[in-house]
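Researcher: I'd like a structural prediction for the single chain below. Treat it as a standalone chain; there are no partners to consider.
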Amino acid sequence: MADRREDTSRCGACGCRQACGCPFANGGGVGVAQKPPRVVAELGRPETLEETTARKAEQSRKYRANKTINNLWLSLIVCVGVVIVIVLLVPRNDSSQLQSIDYRSVAASAQASLPVPVAVPDLPSGWSSNAAEIRSGTDGIAYWYIGLLSPTSTFVALSQGVDANDSWLSDQMHDTAASSTIAIDGIQWTVYDNRTSRQDVGNVKYALTTTSGRSTYVLYGTATDNDFRLVASSITANVAAQPSEGAPAK
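Model: Treating it as a single chain, here is the predicted structure.
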C-alpha cells in the first residue's frame, strides 16, 4: 500500500500547518504590526515627507550657521591673542613720549626777534617745558610764551607781552576779574583766583600779572600758589631789568 505523506509545510505567520485554516496561512494576514507615524505636536498630525525634508534641511542650516559663528569667535580670540603677544614682546622706546623743550635755548634764539629781554625762569630739578615760542595775540601783540610743568604735573604758563594793551591782557585772563594783589621779591603782582568760578576759564584757574617797562607778564595755570610764587620769583631779575618805554633792550 502506497505511503501517504502528510503535508508538513508550516504557516509562516503562526507556525501551524498550512492546512490548519489559520487566517495567517498563505499570506492571509499581516505578520508584524506596523508602527504608526509620529504625530508632530506643532502640527497635530504626522509630518508629510516634504515637511520632514524641510525640517531636516533647516536643522542642517542652523547647525552650519552656529558653527560659522563659533569659528568667527574663535578666529577673533586668536587674533586678539596675537595682538596682545605682539604688544608685550615688541620693545617700546620711552623717548617717543612727549619730550621736554629746552626753553633756555629757544629763548636765546627768540631774543633777536624781540626788543626787550625775554624771561627765562630758573627752576629747580623736576620742572620741564612742553612749549617755548614767540606768539602773536590780540591786536597783533607779540609775546614770548613758555609752557611749564611742575614735578607734580600741574601747569604754569608764562606769557610776556611786548607793548601789550588791555585787550591783550583781558584775552589772556579769559575776561576774568582781579581778586587781590601780592608782593613777591619786591614785585607787586595782581592776583586772579578763578578756582571756584563757574565761568569757563580754561587753564586760567589762577593767575598773576605785572607790568615792567614795555613788558606785561602773565602767569596762569592749574598749579598751586607755591608753584606760582616759585615761577614768579624765578623771573624777578628779568622783571626788574626791563627797560623803560622807548629805551633800547640791554
